[in-house]
Specification:
With 891 residues, this protein is an all-beta fold. The chain has no helices and 84 strands. Strands 3-4-5-6-7-8-9 form a 7-stranded antiparallel beta sheet, with no helix packed on it. A 5-stranded antiparallel beta sheet has the order 1-2-84-83-82, with no helix packed on it. Strands 10-11-12-13 form a 4-stranded antiparallel beta sheet, with no helix packed on it.
């Protein structure tokens, strides 16, 4: 399987001036592997600008699909982009503002400008307003390619300004406290603070809509206050971290991975018209960060999920969904254009279904008793229960009157109306009839009860693992039923109509033809476990906790409708379903069309890179991809192998060595062909890492931890046979080698060692000293050993005598790497960008190349540096440029 990803390549062939000869590296290749979509903006010509973590990507909608035109890398993690006129865009990464120019369908970095703090948001209104962690910067755009900071100060109650929004001649700024600052920008050159919006605590996101509404959301995306002017007019129990306005009263809001279309035409009762929870990616940034709309197309920047594009053209009346927030509802029944819901407090609510909307409007309500459930409706009679009591309500009266109430010896779990009375199923599995006096029906214990017209059916879960359905065509349980046996035990409920019954078992949904007894399993119906099944006209509907599914003619899944709150129960009439949820209630016009979605990116999440002289290996949870770096600066794809079960890799001149969690070590050829495997670990042993050192393979492992006494060791393998030849104490965390010497950071015991590897299969420790606290990486250069910890520790190579400590101390060092080649040292992890130093004087290279995001692997070879970042592969070189041949590069 090829675990590659479609990306745009940045191929840099110009030389960077001013580098010391010791570290004279020029960026030659930047291949984007991952798109973390943080922000999205549209320019006046319809181009889409995406802040990707890697940099800025330019897209164009072609034939309804987004086409990637160009991508440029920017130093640091690019999280903000705002497109303006004249093809200029402004991007923020870290504490830098980047000016990017679109020239046709290409992007060019014009300049980078330091700001006073981390850039959080950007707004443009003749002038540039840049929200940073140190306040709002006001920049003049007399020259759009060179925004100049003015002397204007925009006062905020907290320095970390997280969000900006533009209204009619007004700028709003959220800064994480309980107020939103308001500025008049009638004259953008001299903005004036005019007041505040008193919002909820931790107000961190502010957005505006064309109709004068202002939306303010808290940092955690749980609540939203809606303002008109300075007045709070409504609140919603959902966050609006991201927002996209429409010309109508239905706007798009998002928090976490959930996107909603909210109809606020009635501010006192906002209605959710669409809901979609995006599936998480393998990455750790699964959040909707920003949205932008162009006509019926909605662009959603969803972190590692990527750019998600919705076709929202179906979002017109009649809508498919109307979902209302309120008290939790526990049950529902529907008849004609009315639905009856039971609230958690026992209130029965009768609501009208407006199918042209779709909408629910309340007609009346009354108390059904503590824990009331709605079970059945027929004509002007509604059947409910509350604990051990069941009640038939006369709906012709206003308020409804309890016509019949019957008490039973156990809790009522299901009930149906029959001949003006009721048949109920109790929690103990017994069946009872009441008209009005309760009488037990002779029957084995059953789990489910259903009615269709005058017919009844029950489902018995049998000890042999089958479900027996009994069908009573005339509804008389005293008569002999037709019986149908189904393999598996039914969960959820039993659905019944005039000709069919349906239930769910481990094999999926089984539909029974009641006339001839034929049974069939609905294809692909075992992918979710339904809480309830309901026949509605020819169709079968199913609900799980999040979605309403429509099986056309009870044969094929044709549509799904996400529901914004946890689904509890459902009932349906042809074309419309009423749904009780844990957060209110909803109605679905299940014949309406849903918005369509597309995701133009497929990301790769490489966590480690390894390389031999001319071969590069990229390791993710899915695949290990092989690339040649022999003929050109751009890596060229060779092969890919599955990474299932693999926890570490190492490169040798002969190929790739992999380590699986079960202790299997495998050797692959340079072309990706498995040559041999061997199981090295045994019971009670946990393998941890693998390294190629000289002409041997070092496998580290721990053992005895299950007994509470852990020890570690490193086994030395012959690279040709994978046989274990010798063993050293301790686990090797990082290792450097040169000639017949190796230097290792070892744990359990925590040591720094100098090791003789003149016989590579029998390494001999020569010198051992305690390793520095927090030591994470080691390298060797020009007769010295360097260990990166809270500071950089220098030792003599032969005796490991301390020489000196370098670099400023770091209290809690992150994942750091240090590698050296000849007289150049590269350090990553201590700042956003790699730090280069020339030896022997440790002179810092001020004009060192930059990378677009955090480094994960660092490889130095003769004349070349390869860096795996969170988002890309970066190749620097001190050699003349090498032109790629007719090969496929990283994609």
């Amino acid at each position: 399987m090829r675990g590659r990803v479609t990306v745009v390549l940045l191929f840099l062939l110009s030389l960077s001036p001013g580098l010391d000869a010791a570290c004279d590296y020029t960026p030659r290749f930047s291949g984007q592997l991952r798109t973390t979509a943080y922000d999205v903006s549209l320019d006046s010509e319809g181009f889409v600008w995406l802040a990707t973590g890697y940099g800025v990507t330019l897209l164009e909608m072609t034939g309804g699909s987004p086409l990637i035109l160009d991508s440029i890398a920017l130093p640091g993690s690019t999280r903000v982009v705002e497109a303006s006129s004249n093809g200029i865009g402004y991007a923020g990464s870290g504490s830098s503002l980047h000016v990017v120019k679109r020239e046709g369908k290409k992007l060019r970095l014009v300049r980078s400008i330091a700001t006073g703090g981390t850039v959080n948001d950007i707004a443009i209104e003749s002038y540039l307003f840049v929200a940073t962690s140190s306040g709002i910067e006001h920049r003049a755009l007399f020259d759009p390619e060179n925004p100049t900071k003015t002397t204007v100060t925009l006062f905020t109650t907290s320095p970390n300004v997280t969000s900006l929004a533009l209204g009619s001649s007004t700028l709003y700024a959220a800064d994480g406290d309980a107020s939103v600052e308001v500025y008049s920008i009638a004259f953008p050159s001299i903005p004036q603070r005019t007041g505040t919006l008193e919002a909820m605590p931790l107000a961190s996101w502010v957005h505006t809509a064309p109709n004068g509404l202002i939306f303010v959301s808290d940092r955690f995306g749980q609540n939203t206050d809606i303002f008109i002017g300075a007045n709070r007019v409504a609140s919603m129990q959902s966050g609006t971290r991201s927002f996209a306005a429409s010309a109508s009263q239905t706007h798009y809001v998002a928090s976490g991975r959930t996107l909603r279309a909210i109809d606020i035409s009635a501010l006192s009762r906002p209605v959710t018209r669409f809901s979609s929870q995006l599936a998480p990616s393998e990455g750790n940034e699964n959040t909707i960060h920003a949205m932008a709309r162009a006509g019926d197309t909605l662009f959603v920047a969803a972190g590692d999920i990527g750019l998600v594009v919705f076709d929202m053209s179906p979002m017109k009346a009649p809508f498919a969904l109307a979902s209302y927030s309120g008290a939790a509802t526990s049950s529902v029944r529907i008849a004609g254009d009315k639905a009856w819901f039971a609230d958690a407090d026992g209130t029965i609510r009768e609501q009208r279904i407006v199918s042209s909307g779709v909408a629910l409007t309340e007609l009346r309500s009354w108390s059904g008793g503590d824990g009331a459930l709605v079970h059945d409706v027929e004509g002007e009679t509604l059947l409910t229960s509350a604990g051990q009591n069941a009640t038939l309500w006369s709906l012709g009266a206003n308020p409804p009157v309890a016509a019949v109430t019957a008490s039973f010896g156990d809790r009522v779990i299901e009930a149906v109306i029959r001949n003006g009375g009721m048949v109920v199923l109790l929690a103990n599995g017994s069946l009872w009839a009441a008209a009005p006096s309760p009488q037990q029906i002779e029957s084995p214990a059953v789990a489910h009860l259903a009615r269709a017209g005058s017919a009844l059916a029950t489902a018995e879960l049998r000890p042999d693992g089958t479900t027996l359905v009994r069908h009573y065509p005339d509804g008389d349980p005293s008569k002999s039923p037709a019986t149908f046996s189904i393999a598996g035990l039914a969960t959820g409920n039993l659905a019944l109509d005039a000709t069919r019954a349906a239930l769910f078992t481990f094999s999926g949904i089984t539909v029974i033809d009641l006339a001839d007894g034929q049974k069939r399993t609905v294809p692909a119906s075992d992918r979710t476990i339904p809480r309830q099944l309901v026949f509605s006209g020819p169709d079968l509907l199913a609900i799980d906790s999040t979605t309403l599914y429509v099986y056309a003619n009870a044969q094929e899944l044709t549509r799904g409708y996400p529901i914004p709150a946890e689904v509890v129960a459902m009932d349906a009439e042809p074309s419309v379903a009423a749904i009780a949820t844990a957060g209110g209630n909803a109605a679905v016009s299940y014949v309406a069309t849903n918005p369509e979605v597309s995701i133009p990116f497929r990301n790769s999440y490489y966590s480690k890179a390894a390389a031999s002289d001319d071969q590069l290996y990229l390791f993710s949870r899915e695949t290990i991809d092989f690339y040649s770096i022999a003929a050109a600066d751009a890596p060229s794809y060779v092969a890919g192998v599955t990474a299932q079960g693999i926890i570490d890799i190492a490169a040798t001149p002969a190929g790739l060595v992999t380590l699986a969690a079960n202790g299997t070590v495998s050797l692959y050829s340079r072309a990706g062909v498995l040559l041999r495997s061997a199981v090295i670990a045994e019971a009670g042993v946990a393998v941890t890492s693998i390294a190629a050192v000289g002409d041997s393979i070092w496998l580290s492992l721990s053992k005895g931890c299950a007994s509470g006494v852990c020890s570690s060791e490193t086994r030395v393998l012959d690279p040709g046979t994978l046989a274990v030849i010798s063993t050293m104490s301790g686990a090797v965390d990082d290792v450097a080698n040169s000639g017949n010497r190796a230097w290792a950071l070892v744990s359990f015991p925590d040591e720094l060692r100098a090791i003789d590897i003149s016989d590579p299969l029998h390494p001999v420790p020569l010198v051992t000293i305690p390793r520095p606290a927090f030591a994470s990486s080691i390298t060797y250069a020009t007769g010295a050993v360097y260990v990166l910890a809270q500071r950089l520790h220098e030792y003599t190579a032969t005796t490991l005598n301390p020489v000196t400590e370098r670099l400023a101390p770091i209290a809690n060092p992150p994942a750091q790497l240090i590698r050296a080649m000849a007289d150049c040292v590269i350090v990553t992890g201590r700042s956003d960008q790699p730090e280069l130093y020339s030896l022997p004087g440790w002179s810092a290279i001020q004009s060192a190349p930059s990378i677009p995001s955090t480094a994960r692997s660092l490889i130095l070879q003769d004349g070349r540096v390869v860096i795996l970042t969170d988002h890309s592969i970066e190749v620097w070189s001190s050699l003349p440029p090498r032109t790629p041949g007719r090969t496929r590069s990283v994609r």
